[in-house]
Amino acid sequence: MTTNMVESLNSMLVNARDFPFVALLDVIQETISKWWNDRRIVAMAIIAPLTPSRESEFKPHFEQSNGRHTSQLNPGTYHVKGGELEGVVDIFNKTYTCKEFDIDKLPCVHAIAEAYHAHVSIYSLVSPYYTKEYYVVAYGKTIYLVKVQSQWDVPDEVAARLVFPREVKNKKRRRPKTSRFPSTKEFRKWKNRCNKCGTYGHYKKKCQSQTSSTERNPPTDMPV
Q: What is the pTM (predicted TM-score) of this model?
């Protein structure tokens, strides 16, 4: 699996992409339905208030917040000192000078220290998108498989419509391409080697060199 969604689906469909189009869609739908159900089971088994990835971020932040000195400026606003950075935390607007609290919508070290001294639950400062409830709702729907064609409920105006295939010009038959085209910044693992000049990057048929590799580098046992 890669971070790119398209690459992830391509790796999943390596064996199925040679199937007919309808069969390929069935494989995609069945696989996504299984993924959806697996993630729903994981989400419902969570005990903590937040998702596992966000809970793992909380522990080091909570440990680093120990020893921070806070002074209240007004109700909801505190000046936090300690460490490499100090600034002002606004608990009502959920902002801090470092902007980490503002962008990530997750309490930073200074916000946790302020919440501890203000007797405010740190979970109340977290964006609801990181909570278990939102995680469960995201996978709450069920993806059903398509019924057999005999059980389809097709409207009459759709069934009466005739759809003809588009006109396709006859192309020269060749071996179908199975590998994808590399991206712009992607490095090729292999290069073409010319049998005539011995260099890489082209074939013998497209070689523009006038001398062959044997003429430039004759064997050592050949008399000169």
A: 0.58
Q: What angle is formed at CA 76 by the lines to CA 86 and CA 108, rounded to 5 degrees?
A: 45
| 10, 120, 142, 180 from 13: Cα distances, Å | 5, 49, 22, 13
CA separation for the pair 110, 90 (Å, rounded): 11
Radius of gyration of the chain (CA): 31
Q: In angstroms, rounded to a whole number, what is the distance separating the alpha carbons of residues 127 and 156?
A: 48
Please provide residue 134's backbone torsions phi and psi, each rounded to the nearest 5 degrees: -70, -35
* pLDDT band, residue 222 (cuts 50/70/90): very low
